[in-house]
């Protein structure tokens, strides 16, 4: 019988080097080699992830493939096999559901479980974590890491402490002590700009934020101020909804559509992607923004939700280019045959431009072509301004 005074026992599971580990499992010759998932060297695009071997070379998710190859010339590059990874994700969900009903997938390889009412089955929390890991291993032959804490935020924060293949149990006191000396950027939810603002206040460590007067934080950050302090103290009760690792703070613009009936025909999806890309691009242009990263969001009929993203090596607010990237994500991420409930397109990593039609740097549209393209966009926007959003849509992959 578990002796634990916590009011809640929250378990966070995060698969280790998820896509890469699946490929290593399925292709035994990869054993011991640095493996990078996301595309072949020479292709545009970024790494989705890499195994721990490749991380030793400085490779990480989101890094352009050409740079991965420069840092790790012996790396084995593999294209993303979205359907296969989603299948494994659903298998893992099945395992977790055997431990408790309250499982929430937070991304393709992360889940939260509320084990509060299941504590009596385990001798201690470490043991609980080991049992969950064993269950996952037995079903899918993959390792994961487990964080156990009295709330979701601390469970997620601590899962990385013994990664890969580890269990970390952390009370709020332990969390406060352990994270106090670390920089504020260690907090999930504190991105670059918040870090800079905090630094300007003289707050560089989590410990300093733990003790900083809430009033001042509130005056400077609004409702986000007290939340920052809660995060530092491990008292934040919300979830940090970020599909991939740390929450992204950067501004983004996008649109989503929930279908009145779930769909699984490619034509409907592609035409919806076209509309959503058009709307996202239009918003970017209206705000004089261009972006580099395109994220596709997919929610299936069983409510499992995944995101998949690609990054361009230039900034754009052109709907054709955004659409092309969204379709690429769709092709990589979609589990064939599954019914889709919601789909979304989002553009992030934004920069402000002086003029929304300033020259595109896309390799397809150079010189005169870029100029012509800008004129077409300008004209199309003028027509939409006059007659409404629905009158014009981009007609296909450029
Ligand atoms: P993560 O859990 O962030 O990374 P990981 O599982 O590969 O490695 P770790 O051991 O550090 O948890 O993301 C899960 C999967 O999501 C990852 O295997 C690939 C995919 N992904 C992307 O497609 N793009 C991204 O930018 C990131 C960060 C992840
Ligand atoms: Mg992971």
Describe this structure in words.
The protein is an alpha+beta fold and 398 residues long. The protein has 3 domains: 124 residues, MutS, DNA mismatch repair protein, domain I (3-Layer(aba) Sandwich); 58 residues, 5' to 3' exonuclease, C-terminal subdomain (DNA polymerase, domain 1); 140 residues, Dna Ligase, domain 1 (2-Layer Sandwich). 40% of the residues lie in helices and 21% in strands. The strands form 3 sheets. The chain has a 5-stranded mixed β-sheet, with helices on both faces. Strands 9-12-10-11 form a 4-stranded antiparallel β-sheet. The protein has a 3-stranded mixed β-sheet with strand order 3-2-4. 40% of the residues are buried. Thymidine-5'-triphosphate binds next to strand 1, helix 1 and strand 11.
